[in-house]
């Protein structure tokens, strides 16, 4: 995924200064695996609380036709200055500077 996507409006906060004030024609079309296009209807932000620090999902597209929430790992790691490691059991998010685990 090149952008964070959700079909659930309750997953994101849309502030008055965000793209909610943009016409939906300004929001991107999302191309899915079968090549079809889905319209994004809004953009907002979300926060994941952890015991060490919050992690942010910025510019999440609200796309009612998407079946599963998607996270852009590149955008997430860049926005949160962290790394993500995948293994057969799941994933581990670490602070980029200290390499301290944030979330498993």
From TrEMBL:
Residues 1-26 are annotated as: Disordered. InterPro entries: PolX-like_BBD. Pfam families: Pol_BBD. Residues 12-26 have a biased composition (Low complexity). Residues 1-10 have a biased composition (Polar residues). It comes from the Eukaryota. Residues 30-79 form the Retrovirus-related Pol polyprotein from transposon TNT 1-94-like beta-barrel domain. This is Retrovirus-related Pol polyprotein from transposon TNT 1-94-like beta-barrel domain-containing protein.
């Amino acid at each position: 995924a090149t952008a964070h996507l959700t079909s659930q409006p309750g997953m994101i906060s849309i502030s008055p200064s965000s793209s909610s004030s943009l016409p939906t024609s300004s929001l991107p079309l999302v191309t899915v695996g079968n090549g079809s296009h889905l319209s994004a209807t809004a953009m907002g932000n979300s926060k994941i609380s952890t015991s060490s620090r919050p992690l942010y999902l910025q510019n999440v597209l609200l796309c009612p036709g998407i079946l599963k929430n998607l996270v852009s790992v590149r955008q997430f790691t860049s926005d949160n200055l962290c790394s993500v490691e995948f293994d057969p059991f799941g994933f581990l998010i670490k602070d980029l500077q200290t390499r301290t685990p944030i979330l498993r």
